[in-house]
Amino acid sequence: MARIAVLLNDRCHPKECQGECQAYCPPVRMGQDCIVWGEDGKPVISEVLCIGCGICVHKCPFSAIKILNTPEAAEEEIVHRYGLNTFRLYRLPIPRPRGVVGLIGPNGIGKSTAIRLLSGTEKPNLGRYQDPPDWEEIVRHYRGTELQGHFQRLSRGEITAELKPQYVDQLSQRTGVALGEYVGESGGDAAAALAALGLTHRSDVPLETLSGGELQLAAIARSLATRADLYFFDEPSNYLDIVQRLNVARVLRELGDRASVVVVEHDLVLLDYIADQAHLLYGEEAAFGVVTSPLPMRTAINTYLGGYLREENVRFRPEPIVFTSHPPKPASQRTPRVTFGRLVKRFPRFALEVGGGTLYKGEIVGIVGPNSVGKTTFVRMLAGMESPDEGSPPSTLRVSYKPQYLRATGAWTLNERVASLRTGEGFDAELFQRELVPTLRLGSLLDVPLPDLSGGELQRAAVGLALARPADLYLLDEPSAYLDSNERMNVARLIRRIVEREASTALIVDHDVYFLDLTSDALMVFRAKDEQKTAGEGEGPFPMREGMNRLLRDVEITFRRDEESHRPRINKVGSVLDREQRSRGEYYYEPAA
Ligand code: ADP
Ligand code: SF4
Q1: d(CA 321, CA 306)
Q2: Measuring from atom 3 of ligand 2, which residue has the nearest CA?
């Protein structure tokens, strides 16, 4: 049986190892060229000679090799292969003439690859990276399928595709270009697109001074203003706050009413609202991905949450994700952890005021609100990293803080970091090894230098390090950022389990509604006091439902619950349910207890 052998190129450092992969490979020891050295000094693994023993995988000090069995998908369903010992994709999503198609799947499974192939940014090679087929052959390959016409028109230049790229931070490299000018390059109605995304007043601002969230909105605005037959949006919610996400959901939904749109998104509340149907993707990160047939949107997410796709006999996770209510416990069953008074912080151009509140043992408080209104400043005051100008934060708490921005300083590995923590700051190495490493899938990352880790891997590592520090109060700033939807739900459950078990307390700043719903008992709500965001205020904690009501009233969006999974779903604006809920002031439904 043939194998899939993948070399994670960024992880392989042949000058820093002893060539263990080759030295220990049994076929090599029998005289076969199963692993030879390439021109770049890195191993080239023969998938034909490999016997799948996995020895090289374990011997590589940088966890740079993956060896897998070929997937269930038939070999002729291969769409693209980047090269030898690299990622390959089986099957493709099918864009519809009108409406929005979603793609759901883990990081590194081929979603962006699929988008590049469908948009014509990359030509599918049907697996033949050394001898790529021409368009005629590609069209012939898809004869009789819905993709035949697509590739035919794409090859003749009859389809124009617009792609909102995943990595919007790169836009800041375009120095000296104003936001309005950038969106204007689309040649379409830039003013309307800027207005739809709330950017009109920022139109003269140069790209290099915009925040991550504004760059994301700029990229979306530009795509929106571009005339195209087919639109692709790769992770439109990254860097956006909860309010911006809900607005983008509305804008993309409207685009889908008049054009063909494909969206990759890990915030499932958002995708659920935007898309009419979705393809799930499964496989092995960085090695191979298989695209499933399309499912109606509600079924797609419920199947993903349920963990099993019967039609293709695919398991996404061992057990289903269940949304349950966390109603406030009776006062007699709650033990206060800490009561804090009013806190005020003044910066030269920003002032924050947070009303006092009480946090309880064994409970998690979500912090919601737009960006730049002081959520992180509040968390940093509680963590003792920022001193308030009025009021004093509780000082007797043991606090463990995961900052919003993760920096991989130096060439440390996670193992080295853990070893250094063990001696100094108080670190539960046993908990880390026993529970956090397996749940957060850190095992293969322990010896990798931190700068080699992807955003999602770094986030998982940071969450692990923060939770392994024994603390009364965990302060987690945007733990869902960079994680795929499966990892988000995994991390949500882990945080709840640890906080409940240890009777500690957690404050979580996040923008993903599923993540907040799965973790939080209560909510603190932050808002801007003026349009320029020169002042912010925070209130709460409120019970979950009241907190969401306060947030959603401002953005005029209502949520119902899915009958099967009890997950929150955005109501279509103006639908009977939406109007009825709004008239009752009921913006957010709690699931049954
Ligand atoms: P997703 O969008 O689902 O996160 P991607 O399509 O970005 O997944 O990537 C799938 C895999 O393909 C990753 O392991 C990535 O490193 C690899 N890959 C992407 N582009 C190339 C390329 N040009 N050459 C080799 N490998 C690539
Ligand atoms: Fe050699 Fe394959 Fe075993 Fe790796 S998994 S050591 S390449 S036979």
Answers
A1: 6
A2: 53
Which range marks the domain in which residue 275 is found?
Answer: 75-160+267-314
Say whether both 19 and 152 belong to one domain. Answer: no
Helix (H, G, I), strand (E, B) or coil at 533: coil
Q: Check whether residue 480 and residue 543 sit in a common domain.
A: yes
Gyration radius (Cα) of the chain, Å? 25
| Nearest to 129, CA basis, from 169, 185, 83 | 83
Q: Which of 113, 234, 262 is the best mutation target for the ligand 1 pocket, counting ligand atoms within 8 Å of the beta carbon and taking the most?
A: 113
Cα gap 524→378, rounded to integer Å: 11
Report the separation in Å between the CA atom of 51 and the middle of ligand 2, taken as the mean of its atom positions. 6
pTM above 0.85, yes or no: yes
| Closest to 288 in 3D by CA, of 101, 67, 125 | 67
CA distance 286 to 110: 8
Pair 363, 521: CB distance under 8 Å = yes
Q: Are residues 342 and 400 in the same domain?
A: yes
Identify whether 141 is part of a domain.
yes
Instruction: Report percent pLDDT > 70 for the chain.
Output: 98
Strand (E) positions, 151-287?
161-164, 230-234, 260-264, 277-284
Atom 1 of ligand 2, nearest CA residue: 25
Last residue of a domain, one of 44, 70, 96: 70
Per-residue pLDDT reduced to its tens digit, 438-497: 999 999 899 888 888 888 899 999 999 999 999 999 999 999 988 999 999 999 999 999
Q: Is residue 12 located within the same domain as residue 84?
A: no
Residue 286, ligand 1, Cβ within 6 A: yes
- Supply the CATH number for residue 477's domain: 3.40.50.300
